[in-house]
Design a protein that fits this description.
α4 runs parallel beside α5. Helices cover about 40% and strands about 15% of the residues. It has 15 helices and twelve strands. The longest helix has 22 residues. The protein starts with 8 loop residues before the first helix and ends with a helix. The strands form two sheets. Strands 1-7-6-5-4-2-3 form a seven-stranded mixed β-sheet, sandwiched between helices. The structure holds pyridoxal-5'-phosphate (PLP). The site of pyridoxal-5'-phosphate has 12 residues, from α4.
Length: about 400
Amino acid sequence: MSYSNNLDPHTASVHAGEQRPKPYNALANPIFQTANYSFENTQALRDFVDGIVERDKYGRYGNPTQRTAERKLAELEGGEQALLFPSGMAATTIALLAYLKAGDHIILSRECYKQIREFAVTVLNRFGVEVSQFDPNNLFTLEAKIKYNTKLIFVETPSNPFLSITDIKRVVQVARPHDIAVFVDSTFATPINQKPLEYGVDLVIHSATKYLAGHNDLLAGVVIGSKDAVEKVKKLQAVQGSIIDPNNAFLLWRGLKTLALRVEKQNQSALEIAQFLEDHPSVKHVYYPGLKSHPTHQLAKEQMTGFGGVISFEVDADDELTGQFIDALQIPLIASSLGGVDSLIEQSWLISYAGMSKAQREELGVGDNFVRLSVGIEDAQALIDDLAQGLSVLDKVGALTA
Ligand SMILES: Cc1ncc(COP(=O)(O)O)c(C=O)c1O
């Protein structure tokens, strides 16, 4: 028996998708560490081949531990089915390959994860798929890019690093009359803050490495949607072989039990920290959709139930001083990625935009003083105090040079 749909986010995080009772009456989900499955006799094999019995055959087609995590993810997101992958990139690239063929055209948000744009421009294009990008803050540019062969629109909302919110309802309205599929990368939102399937998108994608797993200890990715939409991707996965390890599926499932708790805390802390940063004289600009000053604040309020745990901001400093501010911090760790229980901070050009020329990243709006903070579950006031003492490094230099 599966528990039930329509639970509040906290109860759903703990109970959604759970089998009752579990094998051997275990309370925790067993890890089925097996590559293949045996048949009792030839008749059992025949029954499986004839479709009389549904069961496992070989690990590349799925594992019971993986399915437990998938059931919970599907219920949390409000989808019929979920499919796990060993990383967010694996989930995204296989889903794109499953939906596109030579001669098709895809339109991506120019603010979606840069490796996804890289995959489209280098790999998809090499296999005959035309690629365009649109400005997610101006959906007229999306309509203008639609062509007779457009088959897919790919959106990331909130986006990285500016946390812009794209109007999912409007994107679906634009796509539907042309029979164009819509994928939404909802990694920064999680199903606790946003439910893109309610607007009629075809697939929701997450880098489950981030909030869903939540502890910075594994890589995973997931696609969620209707049974038909997910099965299309599953067929390709079965021959392509990007399969999540049962141990990682277990850790992800365990992490999901506290998803609502973690995300709620991260939403609250990030809002308080964003407000503190916005009022600080050594901070030039803060990008956080929960702030009234954010250009898509109104849309965020309509589309989301929380604003998320990532804040980007520009300090009033040059490259070296920005580094000094970050080095003065005691709590956040200097690292890429986001969404885990530990707060992480990056001087973005050195991590997320490394390898890009200064001119290219400045054109995107990422200067030397651009910082991204992923707020963890530490005490909000402790983080604010730490940021205040870090920023005082800048005040002192300002006073010396004044
Ligand atoms: C929004 C978003 N989507 C997808 C990915 C790719 O996920 P993964 O690193 O799990 O492959 C990332 C990684 O940073 C991301 O931030």
